[in-house]
Amino acid sequence: MDKKVEEARAILKKYGQEHLLNHYDKLDERHQQKLLEQIEKINFELVNSLYKNTSKEPKKQQDEITPIDYLDKYKLNDKYKYYESIGRKAIKEGKLAAVTMAGGQGTRLGHNGPKGTFDIGLDSHKSLFELLADNLKEEWKKYDVTIPWFIMTSRENNKATVEFFEKHKFFGYQRDKNIFFFIQGELPMVDTEGKILIGEDGLIKEAADGHGGIYESLVKNGMTEKMKQMGVEWVFIGGVDNCLVKMVDPVLMGIAIDKGVTVACKSVVKANPHEKVGVFCKRNGKPNVIEYSEITEEMAEATDENGELLYGESHILCNLFSVSAIERMGANPLPYHVAYKKATYMDKDGNIVVPDSPNAYKFEAFLFDAFGSVDDMAVLRVKREEEFAPVKNADSAGVDCPRTARKLYKAFYNLD
């Protein structure tokens, strides 16, 4: 162990992060080993460059933003059954897997535990995880095939998530046969001086690297290899907090296969021109998602000859990828975005500091930043009331909360 400590000190000295071993002697053996492992795996060059970028003014790029073509699922007419038949065939052949991004905690909901274990208040008291499992199992019956389920957790909630599934007998799935858990990547949080923070447990304080880390996590954890061994060619990726997410959609799959694209995404039309959501577009001729903060008032209100918003297709984190696209995207790191957050930490004297204002930088990648690596993609508009009922905020917020999600869920399944 002494040799490992000296090796760690040498690494830390090179990058001016020697403070990370200040409390090493006060840790028990297990935590000492964990801290050394953290130091060994951190890409300090990357962390340094990300910190330096926080003081740089973002480059003003003269990107050409243009509308993107989309299909409306309920205006496909004769094409609906055509696409559906193509998708149904692929699903029946076992070519589809589902991935649920479930690395978050339910803190904003006042829930102590992984967000997927949250009960949205239905009479059944089913958790978000169970609602998603029910949906998948219905598709099993319909297609007479099991849809493999891959669940991305975080270091923070992996143990609690797996224990929750064990307690509920994996909702009919079989661990390591058709349900798999993997942990998303993390990056250290740094203070305004570029020093990596130490958490309350004496270990390096790390935060999840955003939903853009999904590609690399799937590849590094061997999940894409497992998918290929199972004969899976297409992967639906969605979030755990959308209780109406439709992970198995033959129309979406049929469109992707028929058009020869490797990415197909669902959208819902914006509630109003100025709704604060990211929308699909073309950026310099490539598929992209533009944040609401980047859209001018003129662009937000622009309509086509049918009165439809030119930039009205909201990205709802319901995306279908070919396995080959995921592997390609996972091989090239996405750009990181910086967020200034409040982070509790241990100071040099061993005191726990709970800040009352933002004090640290968190770095995360966005899943849609990978869209620009493909020449084309399909966008399918679906109905909000049928496929998008997110649970992101407490009821006091009034939007995207348990109350609104519950109302949409009950209406869709005629539970009232």
Describe this structure in words.
Strand 15 (345-346) and strand 16 (352-353) form a beta hairpin. The strands form five sheets. Strands 2-18-10-13-9-3-4-5 form an eight-stranded mixed beta sheet. The chain is globular. The termini are far apart. The chain has helices spanning 2-14, 29-41, 44-53, 78-92, 128-143, 158-167, 214-220, 223-229, 250-259, 297-301, 323-331, 384-387, 402-412; strands at residues 65-66, 71-72, 96-101, 149-153, 179-183, 186-188, 190-191, 206-208, 234-239, 263-269, 279-283, 286-290, 313-322, 337-341, 345-346, 352-353, 360-364, 378-381. It has a single domain, classed as Spore Coat Polysaccharide Biosynthesis Protein SpsA, Chain A. With 416 residues, it is of the alpha/beta class. It has 13 helices and 18 strands.
Any descriptors?
alpha/beta; eight-stranded mixed β-sheet; 19% strand; 416 residues; 31% helix; globular; Spore Coat Polysaccharide Biosynthesis Protein SpsA, Chain A; three-stranded antiparallel β-sheet
- As for the number of domains, it is 1
Mean pLDDT: 95
Instruction: List segments where confidence is low: pLDDT < 50 over at least 5 consecutive residues.
Output: none
- The total of helices stands at 13
Task: Using the CA coordinates, give the radius of gyration.
Answer: 23 Å
CATH topology grouping: Spore Coat Polysaccharide Biosynthesis Protein SpsA, Chain A
Which bin fits the share of residues in helices? 25-40%
- What fraction strand? 15-25%
The termini sit apart by 62 Å
With strands numbered from the N-terminus, the spatial order across the biggest sheet is 2-18-10-13-9-3-4-5
The level 1 CATH classification is: Alpha Beta
Largest sheet properties: 8 strands, mixed
The total of beta strands comes to 18
Shape: globular
**CATH level-4 homologous superfamily:** Spore Coat Polysaccharide Biosynthesis Protein SpsA, Chain A
